[in-house]
Amino acid sequence: MNKDNIYKYFNDIETDFSEYEEETLSPEEVSQIKSRVYRKMNLSKKTNNKTLTWIGRAAILSICCLAIGGGVYAATTLRKNNAYNLRIKSTESEIVATEDNKVTKKIHDEETGGELTYDVYASATDADSAEGASLVRISKKDELIYMNVDIKLDDISKVESFRESLDYLVNEGHASIASPETFDDFTVSAKLEDTEMFSYLNNYSVSGNTLSLEVVMDTLMTAHFGEDTDVFDVEYDPQTGPASLSQEDYEKQAEYMDNYYASLPDPLNSSISLDIFLGGDLGENYSFVTSLEGNYESGENETHEFDGGSATIEWYGQKQSVTIDSYSIEANGLQVYGEYTEEPDEAAYETELANQGLFAYDEELRIRAWDDLGNTYLLEIDPGPASYIDPVTGYGIYDTSTFVASICDDGYALGWYKEVTGIEYSSQWADGISQITIAIERFTRTEDGTTREVTATCELVSDPVTIDLQ
Fold first, then answer.
1. What is the pTM of this model?
2. pLDDT of residue 21 exceeding 80
């Protein structure tokens, strides 16, 4: 994917900041925003989330923490499904009915209480292939819908005939769908009702005779790749980055988003279908059809205030500070909130890059988490302005002083992090966790200006804090 296309994704960030300055953004904050965006775009690797949106912090915090033995322990509520964060997951499915090449199955999530009935169709004339295919998770995080399927195969070695395509699709993410390239040996598509949605293969794995696939449906990106998408076009200067929009263009975008959300089927009350073609030596089609049927609560999950630690880093004229002050246990796991500040100096940054002979250098604060089951997780700090887009107006809600940190589940990014740092982060929160410990980590990435060799390191820079989930 070229930078022009990438900057379309950032268009909401660059939308006419002057409109917000009087009420919410100072000139210094606008500078911070542009500095962060431009510097991130210098990175040639995808080490950030695939979307630009996040749900804002809860307005009411409940103080319920107690420090014990060097850690912080807090009573929490169980996961629950709501409109913004929903999960139905189970590796065990119940067969409800069988008819020719269609099998109806049901799954129940013991942690969230969600239940889901779905149909599986296979291109084979009997039900054996359909019985071997299961939807093991469907979840929603803001504008993203995740669908995990397990497909049992008689001969797992046949996956090798299209593994190259699987690797490419995971590595390219959004770009694989946006490009005109097609893959005859593997295809995936998803719909809300009859609306074709922007979707991509986020990750896959092979274990025993089971092929596991994770497909992501992005309702926001669907708007950018639908009809009349020239409304999102933005001029791009290699030196200064994307141009800010005029008021007229901004209003056109807002009107487009108004119409888009008004016409988009409600994911929580719509039929969701996923079609997968496994080519190569298999030549099998699978279709999964389900409806969430509104299995969610309207209220937000409880947010708990606690002292989660703080850290500050300085490099190449830049300064970044993070303070963790609260968390919530969502249907899809832990989310952490806090205060965020950044003091950029782009002139010093560019000068130091030249002095060091580097193509890119970046440091950022993230949050590392690990549970009592032995799993490690990465929570990426997502500060304003990459914020929640109001589904009614299409306008962004900006706040440059706070952040939300959610689990990084980008299949490519996690693989790349493991390759360059040796740390293996899990892409999903495990079930049955009793305790989660968090600490702030400092991630450093360097790209040589001559060889373009990339090196990366990360180290903990705050004291670990433990959250008791029982």
1. 0.73
2. no
